[in-house]
Amino acid sequence: MMRVSAKVREVAGAQKKQSNSDAWALGVGLVLFWPALFFMVGGDQKEELSRLKGEYDALQQAAIQKKCPVAQEIEDAKSQAKAAK
User: Fold this and answer.
1) Alpha-carbon distance 16 to 61, whole Å?
2) What are phi and psi of 33, to 5 degrees?
3) Within 13 Å, how many C-alpha atoms sit on residue 1's CB side?
4) DSSP letter at 19?
5) Are 71 and 63 spatial neighbours (Cβ–Cβ below 8 Å)?
6) What's the structural domain count of the chain?
7) Which pLDDT tens digit goes with each residue over 39-68?
8) Are 31 and 61 within 8 A, CB to CB?
9) How many CB atoms lie within 10 A of CB 52?
10) Which structural domain range is residue 60 located in?
11) pTM check: above 0.70
């Protein structure tokens, strides 16, 4: 589960970085230089994020069914994340 979780963070970070880059290129393209719009090729990673989320959810469900200690750790982490918001 740690491997999947780390990969989710990595892919989500890359997706966010690409989104920020695309927004910047759009702004420059609309205001100053329309060829900048060609830099918006993007590296959309929705499919990989969806696959990883499914894999993570499946691992979590298996941990719950087998009563693994990691299942409680995940629930505790979710509770802490919600409380931090």
Assistant:
1) 27
2) -145, 100
3) 15
4) H
5) yes
6) 1
7) 555 556 667 777 777 887 888 888 888 888
8) no
9) 20
10) 2-84
11) no
Phi and psi at 83, nearest 5°, equal -65, -30
Extract the tokens encoding 33: 């230089």
Strand intervals (E) in the chain: none
Answer whether 60's CB lies under 8 Å from 36's CB: no
The helix or strand, by DSSP H or E, that contains position 55, with its residue range, turns out to be helix 46-65
What amino acid is encoded at 74 in this protein?
Answer: I
Nearest-angstrom CA–CA distance, 53 and 59: 10
| Radius of gyration of the CA atoms of the chain, in A | 18
Residues 6-49 have pLDDT tens digits of 777 777 766 666 666 656 555 555 455 545 555 555 556 667 77
**8 A C-beta contact, residue 59 and residue 4:** yes
Give residue 21's Cα distance to chain centre: 16
Measured between its terminal Cα atoms, the distance across the chain in Å is 24
